[in-house]
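User: My notes are a mess, but here's the protein and adenosine-5'-triphosphate's SMILES. Can you give me a structure?
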Amino acid sequence: MARGTTIIHDRPTSKRVGALRALGPFLRPYRLQVVLALIALAATSAISLVLPLAARRVVDNFDDGAGLLDEYFGAALLIVAALALGTAARYYFVTRLGERVVADIRKAVFARVVTLSPGFFERVMTGEILSRITTDTTLIQSVIGSSLSIALRNMIILAGGLGMLAFTSLKLMGLVLLIIPVILVPIIVLGRRLRGLSRANQDWIAASSGAASETLLAAQTVQAYTHEGRSIARFDDVTERSFGVALTRIRTRAVMTAIVIFLIFAGVIGVLWIGARDVQTGVMTAGQLVQFVIYAILVASSTGALSEIWGELQRAAGATERLGELLAAEDALTDPARPLPLPRPVRGHIALEGVSFRYPTRPDVSALEGVGLTIRPGETVALVGPSGAGKTTVIQLIQRFWDPAAGRVTLDGIDLRDMARADFRQAMALVPQDPVIFATTALENIRLGRPDAPASEVETAARAAHAHDFITALPQGYDTPLGERGVMLSGGQRQRIAIARAILRDAPVLLLDEATSALDAESESLVQAAVNRLSEGRTTVVVAHRLATVKKADRIVVFDGGRIVAQGTHDALVAEGGLYARLARMQFTDMPVLPEPA
Ligand SMILES: Nc1ncnc2c1ncn2[C@@H]1O[C@H](COP(=O)(O)OP(=O)(O)OP(=O)(O)O)[C@@H](O)[C@H]1O
Ligand SMILES: [Mg+2]
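Assistant: No problem, the inputs look usable. Here's the predicted complex:
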């Protein structure tokens, strides 16, 4: 499984929660919301910190008469109302911020990945990318949308609470300070372990998504070879590993929780004990002790909450890191900083000069070796040769899906690497070897060739590609959804849609890779006639195994093992008696050794 190698397993170990800093650029546009959320956060935390003060007053002034008591309770009611409002405001701003930022991250990741050249997709499984866009962003959402604000609030309460503790009783506060480091040590030690585990967990989830999507996309092939059992076993295995890692994480977290809770409450009990003795001996009032205890509980519970949240933050840090990797994915192919414009009108002069190329996943095999090929404007050139000879590779290089290792590819005299890919690809129309149909209507599928084309032109293109008849026979004609990957169409019908698309594009350069290979003889000759008409006045590169379809080309270029072994017209090549003559002899069975009469 060559594509099973992923970006996830060859990475250095994860960094700290600081990885969350990468979210900064996504938060920046929403500064105002961040500020509002922080204000609400600070306000509610402050109110929480004031409440114990009120409690002490009530306790210490219990005997002072009804008037004062009523006032205290009235004030408490107001404080509680403010707390309620503040909390609602915090929830609103913070949650909204989380949703907003994650929507932006999803968009950014998709926009980045969709532009990457084929080299990237040979390394990473698409299912894995999808998992990153969904599960990893969900983690980040929970962090920005709640964990982060809970963490901040608890930090404020912790700091404020400690301050108020000191204000209430320095002696008891000193005790608390002794206890806190004892609580923090297990949090830090176990937290480090948690972070690695949570990242591994997400990685396995991504891997299992990758495995699942690959199998589901090929469900029929899997079933035809009764491979379901193995596919299920493979998915089970990956999923179980993910569970295994999750289990270790949960165990670690459970142990951590037990230790932290015990330490916190043991500390509180100890402090209380000493405080109670102080009240007995009159060193402090009952109200002071009540106040102290409430602060101590606030401090303790915020420490506990922080330890919980810390794990969340670490999980999100891992997720941020992975998404950051996608966002920062280096593309081997880039547009130049200052691209040269392709001069219009485009003439369509294509040249490959001393081009050698190896696919990065197969560096030992030369896909093309020293290929020199010039295609003049308006010329129709056919590429023929045995399977694996390098024909599709030539077509891909002409569109700059890969860069040659040596030599250069030019269009109208300009190196493709000096232009923006979107610019010169606009001048090209491609019918690929395995045409792709999208899950939209027939109309929209053809319109991919030129998104602003009116319906009438779409129909003209469909007629030329002999697709009109079968499209109108579909339940809703041109508005029929063609199903995911065009499952509703036959192979030949898919090809005709792809040809209609290319016809509609009306580009100066036409690239046809086995464009009519799935058609029956009659449709093929009809479509071929349309393609011939289309190729008039355009530079056309045709790849075909059936030599009957390329006989009329201006020039035939024969490839073998990544090299050009011969070129010329059909007749000249047959007369030459090389590889082409051999292929021709096999295909035109009634033809003897001699070239057929012109
Ligand atoms: N994406 C890829 N990664 C690695 N190797 C590849 C890739 N695509 C093609 N190859 C290899 O490069 C060589 C040329 O392939 P290419 O697709 O250009 O052949 P072709 O002439 O179009 O064959 P066919 O007639 O079967 O379509 C082959 O050896 C093939 O195995
Ligand atoms: Mg091919």
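The pocket of adenosine-5'-triphosphate (ligand 1) is lined by residues 122, 359, 361-362, 365, 367, 387-393, 433 (CB under 6 Å).
User: Great, I'll file this with my notes.
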